[in-house]
Amino acid sequence: MDLITKTDEIVVSFLDKIEKMDTGINEIIKNSRQFLNGERYLSDKEVSLALKISRRTLQDYRSEGKMPYYLIGGKVLYKESDIEKMLLNNFCEHSH
């Protein structure tokens, strides 16, 4: 029976695969959004990227009351359904 050490090729390959899986899992966790009561919340960065507007414009929308938002622990969050509703309302207003 041979002794397997941490420098054996099979062990190095196995440890490398585990490290890649760990990195992938951590990336998924970092990029996933939690749901609260079935509702998805987005950050201002995510909303500005999705709507292709600057974060400053998004701030103006908040200040003008055009977009509902939630301030939780100093972080601004938007309910995904509120954004969809706002977009639908604005689309309907401009299509008539």
List the helices and strands and how they pair.
Layout lengths: L8 H23 L3 E2 L2 E5 H8 L3 H9 L6 E3 L2 E5 H16 L1
Polypeptide structure, described:
This protein is α+β, with helices and mostly antiparallel strands. It has a domain at 35-95: Arc Repressor Mutant, subunit A (Orthogonal Bundle), CATH 1.10.10. 58% of the residues lie in helices and 16% in strands. It has 4 helices and 4 strands; from the N terminus they run αββααββα. It has helices at residues 9-31, 44-51, 55-63, 80-95, and strands at 35-36, 39-43, 70-72, 75-79. The longest helix has 23 residues, at 9-31. It is rod-shaped and about 75 Å long.
Helicity, in percent?
A: 55-70%
Count of distinct strands:
4
Low-confidence stretches: none
Using the CA coordinates, give the radius of gyration.
Answer: 23 Å
- Distance N to C terminus: 81 Å
The gross shape turns out to be rod-shaped
* Name of the CATH class of the domain at 35-95: Mainly Alpha
Structural class: alpha+beta
Proportion of strand residues: 15-25%
CATH topology title of the domain at 35-95: Arc Repressor Mutant, subunit A
Order of helices and strands: HEEHHEEH
Question: Biggest β-sheet, characterized?
Answer: 4 strands, antiparallel
Number of helices: 4
> How are the strands of the biggest sheet laid out side by side?
1-2-4-3
Condensed summary:
With 96 residues, the chain is an alpha+beta fold.
